[in-house]
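Appendix C: a fully annotated inverse folding record. The material below is reproduced so that readers can follow the format used throughout the book. The structure is listed first as tokens, followed by the designed sequence.
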């Protein structure tokens, strides 16, 4: 086994120390023997698969549900009784069919295999260039620690590594760290141990993308030891927790089954004590057991959730797991990634400071269309509402934005604009485009001759252009360009101070970069159409402007230029950078950031109104995160550091310490994937139902851990989508609010049809259990008739109740308590109360019909009871539409499905009475018109009772309010 230590903090080592630690050669790489040993010691550079439940085990698990187990027992006993009596076991077959159907529905829901690991593997590059004695291309899976890997623009990094060489190297790490802007890499720097993942500029990581430049990398980690591998490992360790609905349905099943068994035991015991017949008592018990279990409930819930997913798709929320629909209604905290979720994931230039002007810019993404709000401070007053043409300083700096730029903008078929190249340079192009300044026209006036690329030491970039004579090339920029293109030599600078510029046919150098460093290289400043010496006051003002923007978390670039009479040979320009980038003319500052989405602030406000707390969790800088959070209303002020915790602070916190501050912290900045996972778990320990949004690989473990994982559909990686429960098709945070509203509606409707179904079922159980004690020769309902009621006369109206429209104030209420019982807030008492009313009315009618002197009534007593229970459920369904409003107060056509289902189910019930074939199958008899009218009359009493209860509750609430205003 190798003695190499890979658990090193490689960013804290110099390149030479890293090479020595891994025993490799900078120029030749590893030897053949070293490679062979390390492939044995460290394995392949790939992610390990986790165990997945087999489809057979998923199918078997469906039949361990306690309600299905009870029904299986009922079917077996029913079949034994029928076969013993030499009868066809139709009841047993019907029950078995229901058991199998419910098992199939459950299997379909759970049989989706996890594909997260497969998505992670897609981030691995298939081949890579390495030094192994000579330059070779190998499969990325064959990389080992100590290999020397070469990377360049367009390459996906195949393993984690310490940079040995970096030339103008920029890497996009947003998928791993969450930051929008490209990271400038350097091989020379060494960082402290506590440096965050996003700040380790001397490292590259597997799965990230090289945007610009080239580099030589010492491979330090492969496979599951990489940062990507750590994400995969965390995903494997995250266990799926049952949703609130699953917990409630489990609780409901236990109550129904054990209550049913207790009731059966009482009826059989009391019956035998009174000398009853065992076979009859068993038939009674079977009917009771079937009546207690709402066989149609699992199917109704599944269909309800499926309908909810369809409605959510129309609102741009794609649900991957049905249980997530209801869980959304219980969400108390939304932990949102910043980049691409709360923001546009596009750098947007929004503030410009020129020597005399403040310019605020509005626009969307990279679209070169927007508005400028320009103000000029003249010393004694401020002029506003100026146009771009009235501001020559603005034209100057926007010209620099365009010519000192290697990106270009592209519009797709859908009209969406994107930046090809560095996102920051794309933002500068769109900024100029909003002022009508186009690169195609400028490139004619200012053709580029040479470039001095950005370096981390100089922190700036320069281009050399030829300024063509105005006489030869008339253009809208010529007057301003003539001013900044003026040759300013030391000999005549004083003499021409403050004088207008004249035409020039010289070369121009445009420079952009760190404001402090560029300002230090400037000795002049461009004010309107004049070039003046820069003084101490000018410098102090510019630094104040820079600090003002930086304190708001805005990235700031400084711009300058100068003209020169002659150029050194092109190949020598880079060697003369120190001379060419001195004695510059200051043009101004541009502030840019990953701007918030325009609709998110309103969505955050709605969340807070609905009792849902938004929390920002990002890998970005603390100041940037806090500024965005303040803009969106997540925090009260961008200066409110008390609500912010950094990843470095999290590192030193124990879990109890994190729990103590988790409910007060609204912004987490500079966090790693492990931190995100800890935050979600902390909130869950505190009883919060957490929705986590994100789009990057770094979000995947937290997405899987959260009660609801929400991935971005447009910018999201495959990894985040596979780890999620829901995908936002439009990447719009506001869609989460719509989804939460839909989730609340779904849960409200689930409670609505549960009270409808169980209220009816209790009435059935009471009616059946009363028959032996009333001296009746048989139970009034057969198992097959009960199945008909539970599946058809209960099921169809229940489905219609599932699409009842949302109540107007549903987003003004606090979230549902995830720990509450399904019977909470009076639902259990309602079910018992209405069930007793159901039972008493039916028992009264049953006793009257059986003991009637009319032979027809005596003969039809079972069909009368069966019909009354079925029709009474129709009135109950209509009354269940609202807990407080009377039926006559509701728009009857706001839920046309309920009206249709009531009419259709009533017709089906009548068919069972009057269609001969159905009569024989269900054991019914045709009723006379009088008997049918009595059935409808008794059934109507349930509707009247529920409506009267609403009036009493309303009167009591008003009376209490008057006494306690």
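Designed amino acids, in order:
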């Amino acid at each position: 086994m190798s003695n190499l230590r890979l658990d090193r903090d490689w960013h804290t080592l110099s390149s030479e120390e890293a090479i020595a630690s891994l025993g490799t050669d900078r120029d030749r790489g590893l030897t053949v023997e070293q490679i062979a040993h390390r492939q044995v010691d460290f394995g392949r550079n790939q992610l390990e698969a986790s165990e997945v439940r087999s489809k057979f085990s998923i199918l078997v698990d469906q039949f361990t549900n306690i309600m299905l187990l009870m029904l299986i027992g009922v079917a077996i006993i029913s079949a034994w009784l029928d076969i013993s009596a030499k009868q066809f076991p139709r009841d047993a077959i019907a029950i078995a069919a229901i058991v199998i159907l419910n098992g199939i529905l459950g299997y379909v829901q759970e049989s989706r295999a996890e594909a997260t690991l497969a998505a992670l593997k897609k981030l691995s590059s298939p081949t890579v260039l390495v030094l192994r004695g000579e330059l070779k291309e190998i499969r990325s899976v064959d990389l080992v620690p100590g290999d020397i890997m070469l990377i360049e623009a367009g390459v996906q990094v195949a393993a984690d590594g310490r940079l040995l060489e970096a030339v103008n190297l920029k890497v996009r790490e947003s998928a791993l760290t969450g930051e929008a802007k490209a990271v400038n890499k350097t091989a020379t720097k060494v960082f402290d141990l506590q440096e965050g993942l996003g700040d380790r500029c001397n490292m590259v990581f597997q799965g990230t993308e090289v945007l610009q430049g080239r580099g030589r990398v010492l491979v330090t980690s492969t496979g599951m030891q990489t940062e990507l591998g750590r994400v995969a490992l965390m995903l494997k360790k995250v266990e799926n927790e049952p949703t609130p609905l699953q917990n409630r349905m489990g609780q409901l099943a236990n109550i129904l089954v054990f209550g049913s068994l207790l009731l059966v035991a009482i009826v059989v015991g009391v019956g035998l004590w009174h000398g009853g017949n065992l076979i009859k008592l068993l038939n009674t018990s079977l009917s009771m057991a079937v009546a207690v279990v709402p066989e149609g409930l699992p199917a109704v819930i599944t269909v309800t959730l499926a309908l909810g997913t369809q409605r959510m798709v129309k609102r741009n929320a794609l649900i991957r797991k049905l249980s997530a629909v209801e869980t959304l209604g219980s969400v108390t905290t939304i932990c949102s990634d910043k980049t691409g979720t709360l923001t546009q994931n596009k750098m947007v230039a929004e503030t410009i400071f020129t020597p005399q002007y403040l310019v605020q810019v509005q626009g969307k993404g990279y679209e070169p269309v927007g508005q400028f709000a320009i103000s000029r401070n003249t010393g004694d007053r401020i002029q506003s509402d100026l146009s771009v043409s009235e501001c020559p300083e603005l034209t100057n700096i926007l010209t620099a934005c365009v010519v000192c730029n290697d990106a270009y903008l592209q519009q797709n078929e859908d009209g969406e604009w994107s930046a090809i190249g560095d996102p920051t340079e794309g933002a500068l192009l769109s900024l100029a485009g909003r002022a009508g300044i186009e690169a195609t026209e400028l490139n004619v006036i200012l053709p580029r001759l040479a470039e001095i690329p950005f370096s981390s030491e100089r922190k700036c970039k320069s281009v050399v252009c030829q300024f063509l004579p105005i006489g030869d090339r008339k253009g809208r920029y010529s007057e301003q360009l003539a001013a900044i293109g003026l040759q300013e030599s030391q000999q005549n600078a004083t003499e021409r101070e403050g004088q207008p510029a004249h035409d020039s046919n010289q070369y121009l150098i445009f420079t952009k970069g760190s404001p402090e460093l560029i300002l230090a290289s400037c000795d002049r400043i461009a004010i309107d159409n004049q070039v003046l010496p820069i003084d101490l006051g000018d410098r102090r003002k510019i630094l104040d402007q820079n600090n003002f923007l930086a304190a708001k978390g805005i990235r700031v670039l400084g711009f300058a230029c100068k003209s020169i009479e002659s150029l050194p040979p092109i190949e020598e320009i880079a060697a003369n950078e120190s001379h060419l980038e001195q004695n510059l003319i200051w043009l101004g500052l541009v502030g840019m950031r990953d701007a918030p989405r325009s609709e998110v602030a309103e969505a955050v406000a709605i969340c807070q109104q609905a009792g849902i707390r938004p929390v920002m969790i990002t890998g970005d800088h603390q100041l940037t995160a806090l500024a965005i959070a303040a803009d969106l209303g997540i925090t009260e002020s961008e200066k409110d550091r008390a609500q912010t915790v950094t990843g470095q602070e999290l590192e030193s916190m124990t879990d109890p310490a994190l729990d103590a501050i988790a409910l007060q912290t609204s912004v987490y900045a500079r966090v790693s994937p492990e931190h995100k996972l800890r935050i979600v778990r902390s909130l869950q320990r505190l009883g919060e139902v957490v929705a986590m949004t994100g789009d990057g690989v770094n979000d995947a473990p937290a997405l899987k851990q959260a009660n609801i994982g929400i991935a971005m559909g447009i910018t999201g990686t495959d990894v985040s989508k596979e780890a999620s429960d829901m995908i936002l098709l439009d990447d719009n945070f506001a869609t989460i609010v719509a989804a939460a509203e839909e989730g609340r509606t779904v849960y409200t409707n689930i409670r609505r049809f549960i009270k409808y179904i169980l209220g009816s079922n209790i009435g059935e159980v009471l009616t059946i259990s009363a028959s032996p004690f009333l001296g009746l020769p048989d139970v009034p309902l057969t198992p097959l008739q009960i199945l008909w009621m539970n599946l058809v006369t209960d099921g169809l109206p229940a489905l219609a109740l599932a699409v009842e429209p949302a109540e107007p104030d549903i987003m003004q209420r606090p979230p549902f308590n995830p720990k509450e019982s399904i019977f909470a807030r009076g639902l259990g008492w309602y079910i018992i109360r209405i069930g007793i009313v159901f039972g008493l009315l039916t028992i009264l009618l049953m006793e009257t019909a059986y003991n009637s002197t009319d032979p027809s009534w005596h003969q039809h007593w079972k069909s009368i009871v069966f019909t009354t229970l079925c029709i009474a459920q129709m009135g109950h369904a209509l009354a269940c539409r609202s807990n407080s409003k009377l039926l006559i107060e509701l728009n009857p056509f706001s839920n046309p499905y309920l009206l249709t289902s009531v009419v259709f189910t009533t017709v089906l019930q009548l068919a069972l009475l009057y269609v001969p074939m159905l009569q024989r199958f269900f054991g019914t008899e045709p009723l006379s018109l009088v008997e049918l009218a009595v059935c409808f009359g008794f059934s109507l009493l349930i509707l009247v009772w529920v409506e009267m209860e609403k009036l009493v509750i309303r009167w009591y609430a008003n009376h209490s309010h008057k006494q306690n205003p």
